Amino acid sequence: MNGSALYKKVVLLGAAVAALSLCGAVWVWAAGGQAPAQSLAELLERYDSKRCQECHTEIYEQWSRSHHARSLMGLDGFSFMSKYLRKGPLAVNKPQDATLANFPCAKCHLPQLMSAGPKVAQELAEVIWRDDKAVVGRLNIGCLVCHQDKAVVHHRPEPGVLYGPKALPEHEGEIKAVRKSSFMASPAFCGQCHGMGPNFEFTPPVQCATLYGSYLNGYVADGGSRTCLDCHMSGADHTFPPDFSDKEATAKLYRAALPMEVEALPYTFHPGHKENAPQVVVGVTIQNRAGHRIPDG
Ligand code: HEC
Ligand code: HEC
Ligand code: HEC
Ligand code: HEC
Ligand code: HEC
User: Fold this and answer.
1) pTM for this one?
2) Residue 181 has what DSSP assignment?
3) Ligand 3 contacts CB of residue 194 (under 6 A)
4) DSSP conformational letter for 206
5) Cβ < 6 A, ligand 1 pocket
6) Interval between CA 200 and ligand 1 midpoint (Å)
7) Are 208 and 297 contacting, i.e. CB atoms less than 8 angstroms apart?
8) What tens digit of pLDDT does each residue of 159-201 get?
């Protein structure tokens, strides 16, 4: 290959990369039908579920008790990203160095961050660095994450509309209408975040939840026919138990989910004339009534 042919190839490749990144930009622009949020305040405001509280009081109250409402926090308000930003492959020397590449965890824990402007990652890192729980606690998987951004497949969500179980030609204020999304009722809707295995699109790849893989390959493959919604959202309950901060209630749920039967046969073994060896045969059967392995992660 002579020099000019190589040059042409490089130029062509460059053009292809430019075109692809342009597509990328358009795609990101289209997320939620709005331009990317340029500040953390703008992101918080845009996704604030309080907008829905007034009319959907009960669902709001249920959701606010769920882990979805504090998705950057572990138990007892522990902000888990503070550990990852300080040590390991996602660490930065100072928060101002952070970019979206430091937050692969946001793919499922804060998906709205993935289409935000670069300054938002820095601001978020600062908030996490100073352990500002008031702000971290407002960054969550709120109403619009599920009823807009994650609600449809094969196309971007239409601007200014919501998605739900049935179509409504009219809705309040800024939201013109509700479109029907059959996808929301499918296990794949929850599976977008509840995981199949390693997320290879990141360097290094990250792995967290794998429950959806277990649902498909263990439960459904074995003839299971119930969906995530059948077991977890009956009557549109938005509390999504288990709430691991409530130990008593969680223990009760798991006792019911994993019934255990124990059988014991004690006997004495006489290996020699004067020798007695007490023995016991214990049989334990644990049944799993959930639609997947327990625990996950
Ligand atoms: C001013 C009151 C009001 C506000 C604010 C409001 N809604 Fe609604 N919403 C309604 C009413 C009324 C209905 C119709 C209820 C029905 O027909 O069951 C509805 C229906 C819905 C439905 C569709 C239910 C279905 O059966 O498909 C969804 C989803 C929904 N709202 C989500 C939201 C979200 C998310 C927000 C916040 C961004 C919000 N709403 C804010 C009043 C409101
Ligand atoms: C593929 C989606 C996905 C990615 C990517 C992901 N997580 Fe998760 N993570 C989940 C889901 C879903 C849960 C909760 C349910 C479960 O554990 O099955 C969870 C649970 C957790 C919990 C337990 C929360 C609690 O309440 O105690 C921690 C901590 C956590 N993730 C940290 C991380 C970190 C740190 C990263 C990035 C390195 C990350 N996750 C990336 C989906 C993900
Ligand atoms: C984790 C995802 C998720 C979040 C977060 C979420 N929803 Fe839902 N919501 C759903 C799903 C799934 C359904 C049921 C869809 C179906 O049955 O087809 C639903 C149903 C509804 C319905 C219809 C209820 C009915 O009786 O038919 C309303 C109204 C609603 N959600 C409002 C809200 C509001 C308001 C918020 C925020 C406070 C919210 N949702 C947060 C996933 C979510
Ligand atoms: C946008 C991503 C996303 C979607 C969509 C989603 N979840 Fe989650 N879910 C999470 C994350 C992340 C957590 C853990 C939050 C934490 O505690 O840090 C979680 C927590 C939970 C929990 C509490 C147990 C736990 O391990 O924290 C249940 C139950 C749950 N989700 C069920 C569902 C079901 C059922 C659906 C579908 C209707 C669904 N989720 C949709 C991301 C998601
Ligand atoms: C046959 C019923 C059933 C189905 C189907 C089912 N689950 Fe569960 N799931 C349970 C039970 C039971 C538990 C134990 C806690 C409880 O009772 O809430 C549980 C626990 C969980 C937990 C907490 C896991 C942990 O580490 O302890 C999450 C998250 C969850 N389910 C999400 C889902 C998602 C997402 C789907 C669909 C892909 C799904 N479940 C399908 C019954 C089911």
Assistant:
1) 0.92
2) -
3) no
4) B
5) 51-52, 54-56, 143-144, 147, 162, 164-166, 168, 171-172, 175, 178
6) 37
7) yes
8) 999 999 999 999 987 899 999 999 999 999 999 999 999 999 9
